[in-house]
């Protein structure tokens, strides 16, 4: 009896938590299709007017283009650097290794405002503030730890004899990296790419500090909000949310792909990649 | 054994304060099946890893066909290893796993596939060529690992406890396969194992290691009949070790006084003199059991227990004055005819030729 009550309470609590997290997003989604200009109940009827309005606004289109232009190179760079860092941590022992790993994983724990300010003051000194480059560099700093963590988890599943077996079959260390280590990590590389793209696409605070006139989508949304409360924002929010969740979902699918097939030989499957992404959503 | 193909010359290996292998020398002949046997931590795997170049000896050197291997990285040697964990590449097909070594040597794809497939057919894996290795059974993966190591036609194949993950039945079949493969190819096998059954059933010569040192090298028969020292005798476990003081050194045998009376032991090249204390061992399968003594050495003993090993029975007898149990190995039929019950008093007897001094066998 107590057990059943406990379980019931557990479900209720979980449900409440999800409601708490998802209600604002759901509200945004619902009102983005509401005919009324003001987000209030009862709903006035269905419309796609706000979407139409959004995606014909040159400023929004430009912001979207810029976000994509930034997030793809960010994802590429973060994945490459993340792999290098993860492999370095996996393969080599050196003085100060734990400090190295700590510094690599530090950025997500720094408050966004501090990070944004720091980036702004640094990048303005090297005359990059306000450039698209500034957003790109800042986003690589923020996204890299996610990529590193995901790839490092995958490397932890690799039998250490695998590399030795490759050397033993006369593959040089470079060939081993290319023909053994990279193929072994392939799925986590794809997952890291998608998730770092999502991180960059969503990131607001630091971009707001360093982007200047080169607004990304989240920054554009804030500028909108400062001027007026328009249902257009709900439409943008929904679009951004959908694309991000899509990237994360594919990323998770990749990082967990073939789980059943590998399970027997590989030991524990890696934790869902999505769990690593936190604190980066649009704060509308 | 023909001339030495691999020479291990005064090799030591230290990891920090820990010495894994101490001043070890032996050589391996061309076409020989050599087993390195010992319990875990005895240095046998370190020895194999040094051969493969995965560890560099702290002292001494290893020579292959007379050439020092010092400083050669693993990828610069042609000494393929079959791994205990198999270490197959999970993202490659069976065919590509086998062809990996050829690919690294720059063999073109068509040639690579042809040679890999030939090996897969040889090991009855032809139909699995396009499968993922993860879809195979343990025994099949084992053979893929073997094919992957043999496809480059090396002179020496290193094997690190390759059968330890298989069940007993499969292990016996793989032992037969390995043995016949080795004979057919004439390749030198260096086989590391903790299993006496595997080592003794396959190897031409066995190296017994303990705590980083070689205890004995010899044919399985020689080690079984004449263990070099107390460690090997206890490790192999088919003899009982006794102790006595020399009473008389004769032409063929030595007379000793022991806790259970006078005993005769084969003299061999025994050099001790009157009054010296000496250990000797009695082969368990050369002891007769009955109501009357049948040989010159005899003790009265109490039958404690027995253990079946195939068609042989090992008996454990309690002898007054001896610390360890006296071990006796009899054919199952003989044991049956005796009709003994635990607790029965029996007479165990053996000829002087069944008892030897350590290292003294001529």
Automatic annotation (TrEMBL), chain A:
Residues 64-251 form the ABC transmembrane type-1 domain. Its main location: membrane. The chain crosses the membrane at residues 12-33, 68-87, 99-120, 132-151, 231-254. It is a multi-pass membrane protein. CDD domains: TM_PBP2. Keywords: Cell membrane, Membrane, Transmembrane, Transmembrane helix, Transport. Belongs to the binding-protein-dependent transport system permease family. CysTW subfamily. This is ABC transporter permease subunit.
From TrEMBL, chain B:
Residues 6-236 form the ABC transporter domain. PANTHER family: SPERMIDINE/PUTRESCINE IMPORT ATP-BINDING PROTEIN POTA, SPERMIDINE_PUTRESCINE IMPORT ATP-BINDING PROTEIN POTA. Keywords: ATP-binding, Cell membrane, Membrane, Nucleotide-binding, Transport. This is ATP-binding cassette domain-containing protein. The keyword Nuclease does not apply. It holds the Pfam family ABC_tran. The lineage of its organism: Bacteria, Pseudomonadati, Pseudomonadota, Betaproteobacteria, Rhodocyclales. One of its GO terms (molecular function) is ATP binding.
């Amino acid at each position: 009896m107590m057990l059943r009550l406990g379980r019931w309470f557990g479900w209720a609590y979980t449900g409440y938590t999800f409601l708490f997290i998802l209600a604002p997003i759901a509200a945004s989604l619902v009102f983005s299709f509401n005919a009324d200009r003001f987000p209030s109940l009862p709903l006035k009827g269905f419309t796609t007017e706000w979407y139409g309005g959004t995606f014909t606004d040159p400023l929004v289109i430009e912001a979207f283009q810029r976000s994509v232009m930034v997030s793809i190179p960010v994802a590429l760079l973060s994945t490459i650097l993340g792999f290098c860092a993860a492999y370095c941590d996996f393969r080599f022992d050196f003085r100060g290794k734990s400090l190295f790993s700590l510094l690599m994983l530090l950025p997500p724990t720094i408050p966004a405002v501090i990070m944004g300010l720091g980036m702004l003051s640094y990048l303005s000194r090297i005359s990059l503030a306000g450039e698209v480059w500034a957003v790109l560099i800042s986003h690589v700093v923020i996204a890299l730890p996610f990529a590193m963590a995901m790839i490092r988890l995958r490397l932890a599943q690799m039998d250490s004899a695998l590399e030795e077996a490759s050397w033993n079959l006369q593959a040089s260390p470079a060939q081993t990296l290319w023909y053994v280590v990279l193929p072994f990590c392939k799925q986590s590389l794809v997952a890291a790419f998608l998730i770092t793209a999502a991180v960059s696409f969503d990131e607001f605070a630091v971009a707001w500090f360093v982007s200047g006139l080169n607004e990304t989508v989240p920054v554009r949304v804030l500028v909108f909000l400062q001027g007026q409360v328009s249902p257009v924002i709900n439409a943008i929010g929904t679009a951004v949310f959908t694309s991000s969740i899509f990237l994360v979902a594919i990323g998770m699918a990749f990082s967990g792909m073939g789980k059943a097939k590998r399970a027997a030989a590989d030991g524990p499957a890696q934790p869902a990649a999505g769990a690593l992404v936190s604190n980066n959503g649009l704060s509308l | 054994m023909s001339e030495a193909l691999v020479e291990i010359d005064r090799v030591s290996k230290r990891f920090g304060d820990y010495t894994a292998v101490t001043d070890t020398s032996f050589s391996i002949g061309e076409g020989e099946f050599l087993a390195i046997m010992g319990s875990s931590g005895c240095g046998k795997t370190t020895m194999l890893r040094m051969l493969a170049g995965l560890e560099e000896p702290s002292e001494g050197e290893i020579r292959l066909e007379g050439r020092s291997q010092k400083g050669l990285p693993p990828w610069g040697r042609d000494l393929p290893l079959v791994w205990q964990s198999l270490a197959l590449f999970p993202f490659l097909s069976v065919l590509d796993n086998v062809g990996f070594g050829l690919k690294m040597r720059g063999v073109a794809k068509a040639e690579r596939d042809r040679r890999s497939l030939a090996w897969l057919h040889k090991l009855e894996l032809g139909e699995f060529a396009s499968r993922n290795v993860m879809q195979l059974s343990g025994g099949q993966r084992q053979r893929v690992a073997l094919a992957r190591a043999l496809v480059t036609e090396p002179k020496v194949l290193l094997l690190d406890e390759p059968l330890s993950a298989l069940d007993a039945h499969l292990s016996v079949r793989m032992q037969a396969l390995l043995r016949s493969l080795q004979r057919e190819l004439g390749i030198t096998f260096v086989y590391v194992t903790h299993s006496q059954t595997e080592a003794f059933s396959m190897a031409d010569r066995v190296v017994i290691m303990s705590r980083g040192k070689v205890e004995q090298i010899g044919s399985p028969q020689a080690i079984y009949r004449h263990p070099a020292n107390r460690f090997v005798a206890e490790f192999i476990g088919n003899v009982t070790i006794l102790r006595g003081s020399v009473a008389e050194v004769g032409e063929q045998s030595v007379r000793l006084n022991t806790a259970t009376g006078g005993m005769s032991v084969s003299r061999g090249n025994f050099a001790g003199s009157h009054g010296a204390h000496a250990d000797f061992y009695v082969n368990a399968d050369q002891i007769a059991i009955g109501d009357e003594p049948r040989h010159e050495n005899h003790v009265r003993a109490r039958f404690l227990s027995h253990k079946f090993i195939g068609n042989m029975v090992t008996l454990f007898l309690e002898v007054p004055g001896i610390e360890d149990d006296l071990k006796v190995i009899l054919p199952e039929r003989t044991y049956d005819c005796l009709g003994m019950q635990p607790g029965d008093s029996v007479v165990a007897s053996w000829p002087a030729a069944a008892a030897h001094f350590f290292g003294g066998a001529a």
